[in-house]
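Researcher: Re-running this chain for the archive, since the previous output was lost when a drive failed. Same request as before.
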Amino acid sequence: MPHLNRTASGVLGGLAGLVGLSAVAGVLVTATVTPAIAVSGYAASSALDTFENMPSFLEIDPLMLPTEFYRKDSAGNDMLMAQFYDQNRIPVTFDQVNPVMFDAIISSEDKNFYTHGGVDLGGTISALLGNASSGSNRGGSSITQQYVKNVLQQNCESKAKSSDEVEACFTATTVNSGSEGYQRKLQEMRYAIQLEKRYSKDEILLGYLNITNFGGTVYGIGAAAQHYFSTDAANLTIAQAATIAGMVQAPNTYRIDEPDGSTQDSAGNPVNSAADGYKLTLDRRNYVLDRMLDLGKISQAEYDEAYASPITPQVTERTQGCQTASGAEFFCEYVRSVLLTDPAFGEDDDARAANLRRGGMKIYTTLDPELQQSGLNAISIVPARVDYMNLGASGVQVEVGTGRILSMVQNRPYSIENSEDPNSPTTQVNYNVRSINGGGGGHSAGSTYKVFSLINWLEQGHSVNETVNGRVGTKKVINCDGQTQNVVSSNSGNGIGNFEANPGYVGTVYNFTRDSLNSGFLAMAEKISVCSTNQVAMKLGVMTGDGTPLDTTNFGFNVLGDQPVAPLDMAGAYASIAANGMLCPAKAIDKAINAEGVDITPQTACNRVMTEAVASTAAYTLEGVMRGTGSGARIGDGVPVFGKTGIHEYLHTWMDGSSTKVATVVWVGNVQGDALLSDYYENGYVLSRIRNSIWPEMQGAANAKYGGDAFPGPDSALTKRQLADLPSVLGMTVDQATQALQAAGFSVTVGDAVDGVESAGTIVQQGPGAGRVASGTTITIRPSNGEGVTVPAVSGTPDQAVAALRGAGFGSTSTQCTADSTVSGDNDRIVTGTNPAAGTVVNRNTQITVEFKAKNCGGRP
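Model: Regenerated structure tokens:
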């Protein structure tokens, strides 16, 4: 940036150089506007040749402009969210500048601006002679020449990739010494004359005021008026205009936004401060006022009033960065990361970084103000800081079918500085995204990762109503190479257990998902490889939080969600299920416009990642979760939703789910350390369950605004119940029968013992009986109690039958007569059977009724 102490001293390149330059200037002026100066001789012709061989066409690159991010406000209007710049510039049109500003700059910098042809010959020669004697190499340039110098510097800086390169641009266009300085001056003249032929005086003057530096990062009259006096260029007073006009000679020396002094004297004391009334700037301002008065641009009264006024800056800082995106700072940082990584915004990292700070883009984002506020309200239940752990929480929502990010929140407020305190109440880390986008590397997904096993199961043709032995035990999980590894599923602490020590069961994948049964999903991995499940997750857009593939290593417990992933990735995956199998990449930008007004919005496309049959059946299965482990997060607003809960070793807890319109993912966890969520309470919730407060509020807000339809019904082929051969286990022991039935894929219930002549514990009843039955049917078996007696067959008279029963061990008997006219004798009594019937096994204490017939039941039995 221009500054008095950055002006290089020059060394005279020789009298011949001066003579040649003067001669060239004479020829130029003769050819353009100024009266001719007679020149002759070899020096003049040589210099003229040199001049004519210089480039004459100056390409004026677009101004370096701030990039602006916009979000919608509650009324649906675009609202500035954040801006980024190397140069604080607010371009203005000619009509947006108070004419007094033009008068001030022309009076002090180039009083002949409207009469010369681009070069003020007298001023240039005078400056060169002065430079030759003093060693300086500045001054004497017309406004057009100054504009040329600024354009050259701007064109160079716009391509610079480092501060050193920016400094080199300044040196190349401003601080050349000796003969190089004269060569640069010639080139400026050459360009200036051509610019005057292409553009009007007003265009050049406005271009100069829009491009020039006014101290620090303030560029252009629009930003200068706002920054130093909190006004716009159209409302500058005479004194303010003169102050700003005076700055161009030494912008960093004359700036008035540093009350402690903008420079120092030879003794190191602050100079040009509020204490001395900004004396250097005041003197320069008054010089400008003098020139304006001398040239008749202002009256004596105006001059007197302006001259008598002190310099009273009213500084307005134009803050840049995401700290201005109140309540959406992390989303803003995510958008910034997109601009720094997406090829749509530049061919490489350097180009994208420069484009962000200099490209003048307008970025219109996807953030929904209502959902963002609801998310902030919901997540606030988790404290920003606790003493007992590094507690984090986040929520993110994406629109189904588009991938548009509607909200992005977390419990810890945004900080522009990274604290070394792990329990700091603020953070730079965005818990919702991958590390490349400002995240911390992701969080273990827990059982929310089981959705990928479910989809893999369906894609390989299995039904959710297929039964699998999901009881705890050793599972032979399939690796990627077809080999197996033993994974112990146990509640004893020596293996992977189930929630609340559930022993597991032989059941359907639908029920495994509803109950989030670890042993059940490990059993599924005996039929579908862990590798293929990890690959399904990647197909649905999920990688580890640091961006590496999920299938680089494959272990059985991967299916239970041990690998760290980003919530935004998971939101996209669940949204793809709700979108009937279409995965839409996360999208934070609705529209991007460059400084020329050209639409440069990154183009994203949704891709099919699963069939509609798989997606609809997965949605149907996940709806069941909301009646199982997800019941604590039910909303009750009538909008259909599905979801999946997840807990990883009580260090991380999740709730992921979606309607047909919006997907919501909530994570709460220990960012770093081994303190367990299950050991602590906040706001009446144990931390491992606090998701059940956040997710319904966020998803409920989405339901209220966007609604939601019923999910398509599941595919019949993927929900069919399979028939299986049910063996007979009669005569087996209880253990033998249980093992045989479970091995065949059935669940077993052991009923109460029943009377049986077989030894106690022998299975004497089975229901249903052997045959073809639905796979996974629960079979009830009942063992003998060993106390049964078979009812004998009896005949003869009732007395004879009773005697036979008592002889067989039955002590409780009775008789029952049935009148029958076919009986011949009046006193005949003919036994017809017993109740219970002969051959029935009953307890010996059971009453046996002897049944007989007689002509007249009223007689003696």
